[in-house]
Amino acid sequence: MTAIAARSTNGPENAAVRLRQRDSVTRFNDLLSGEIQADARLAQEDFIIHRRDGLFAYNLAVVVDDHFQGITEIVRGADLVEPTVRHISLYRQFGWAAPDYIHLPLAVTASGLKLSKQNHAPALPGGDPRPVLIDALRFLNQTVIDGWQDLQTEELLKMAIANWSLEAVPKIQHSQMRCAEL
Fold first, then answer.
1. Pfam families from the xrefs (predicted)?
2. Which domains can be identified in the chain, with CATH numbers?
3. pLDDT digits (tens, 9 = 90+) for 72-107
């Protein structure tokens, strides 16, 4: 990969390493929402692939990990739309086929914050997982059969898989495509 910016010979030993963007990706096809246009400034930015603390950055690690695991489809939240163009750029730099992507809508608070530990959302209730599974299926606009309460968890999961419809999932909104701090 010739596009990696080397550490400066007169810079600090612990400097970060960035990928020089030569052929940035500004749009990609999402199997749920269709063509997604990313922020051009983010897509063209030389981004860190090796952090100054010596760790490999998320953007590089996730691409290499997914490639060597043979991942062909990635399903994740809409908050990761923007980094996807960086990931596709890395796949191209390595000469690897990029996987297909699906970005699901985010569950958010009334004020628009993503439900997550980071935003101090309450934990999911313990015990019986079925009500939470039903809530998730309804959130994704999936068919829920009457009498689901009588099903065991395994049967409920089989029902969800058998009735899954990607077409029913709400497409992500532009407001959910915010730049993640990575």
1. tRNA-synt_1c
2. 17-176 (3.40.50.620)
3. 999 999 999 989 999 999 999 999 999 999 999 998
